[in-house]
Design goal:
single chain; globular; 3-stranded mixed sheet; Rossmann fold; alpha/beta; 15 helices; N-(1-d-carboxylethyl)-l-norvaline Dehydrogenase, domain 2
């Protein structure tokens, strides 16, 4: 498959590398050319523009937020006008439900396919090809994309024929992760101030009631105060929780815990934690209880 790949950040670099390893032809574009050069050494074709990356059967975008995605889709040389008719844009970015809905309409009007395929997993999972793909779009198109999804992930969940459903599922999952980080951090602050070793406490939790990858991964970061470099920066976590709340408002679903987590992430921003891993959200409780400031 000839695949354009736009966005070679913490997640995109590993995903694009695994597409190459699976035998796909990859046309790579990134605003920072150094990332492209590193991938070109592994066999990718360096695309000098978004339009050049669209000379493909499929173009994948893996970008930070709505604004970044819109900037490569719209305007002169954007995906909307450069992708060949009948080709597919796969958006793996964590974007708003509203933008996904708008992109689906834009692509349909111009004779292109649009599939939302956000992923669950941190950069190390992206490098290992162990992501979980949440895909939504025309079932026949999603089925044709399975070799692409198999190259980047360990399992694909096709959740709907409506692309925006995949984005809602992804946002809901990130909300659950953020809620878990906050509650686990509070629990660790409580037992830690009483003298219980945080790593031993985590081992107890993950060996009994909470033997889940999220508890093991984020609990380990909390136990080690390991927030730099960020696998997923706190300001991006705040963005996602805000998008969850926007979706809840649109659907008239109250999300009181999401409101609390948003405020806690704003507290982390105010404390200088914008670029820390969002696991640092869980360190706020210990700081407020007299411990060190997150990231200090």
């Amino acid at each position: 498959m000839r695949i354009g790949f736009i966005g070679l950040g913490n997640m995109g670099s590993g995903m694009a590398a695994n597409l190459l390893a699976a035998g796909h032809e990859v046309l790579a574009y990134n605003r920072s050319p150094g990332r492209v050069a590193a991938l070109a050494e592994r066999g990718a074709v360096a695309a000098e523009s978004v339009a050049a990356a669209c000379d493909a059967d499929v173009v994948v975008t893996m970008l930070a937020d709505d604004a970044a995605v819109e900037s490569v889709v719209s305007g002169d040389g954007g995906i909307a006008e450069s992708l060949p008719p009948g080709a597919t844009h796969v958006s793996s970015s964590t974007i708003s439900v509203t933008l996904a809905e708008r992109l689906a309409a834009t692509h349909a009007e111009s004779g292109r396919h649009f599939v939302s395929a956000p992923v669950f997993g941190r950069p190390e999972a992206a490098e290992a090809g162990k992501l979980f793909v949440v895909a939504a779009g025309d079932p026949a198109v999603v089925a044709d994309l399975q070799p692409l999804f198999d190259a980047i992930g360990q399992r694909t969940f096709a959740v709907s024929a409506d692309p925006k459903a995949a984005n809602l599922v992804k946002l809901s999952g990130n909300f659950l992760i953020a809620s878990m980080i906050e509650s686990l951090g509070e629990a660790m602050a409580l037992v830690g101030k009483a003298g219980v070793d945080k790593q031993e406490y985590l081992d107890l939790l993950t060996s009994t009631l909470f033997a889940a990858p999220a508890y093991k991964t984020y609990g380990g970061l909390l136990a080690r105060d390991d927030f730099e470099p960020a696998g997923f920066a706190a300001h991006l976590g705040l963005k996602d929780v805000r998008l969850v709340l926007a979706a809840g408002e649109q659907l008239e679903v109250p999300l009181p815990v999401a409101s609390l987590v948003r405020d806690r992430l704003i507290t982390l921003m105010a404390a200088g934690g914008r670029d820390l891993d969002w696991a640092a959200l869980g360190a706020l409780a210990a700081w407020e209880a007299g411990g060190p400031k997150p990231g200090s």
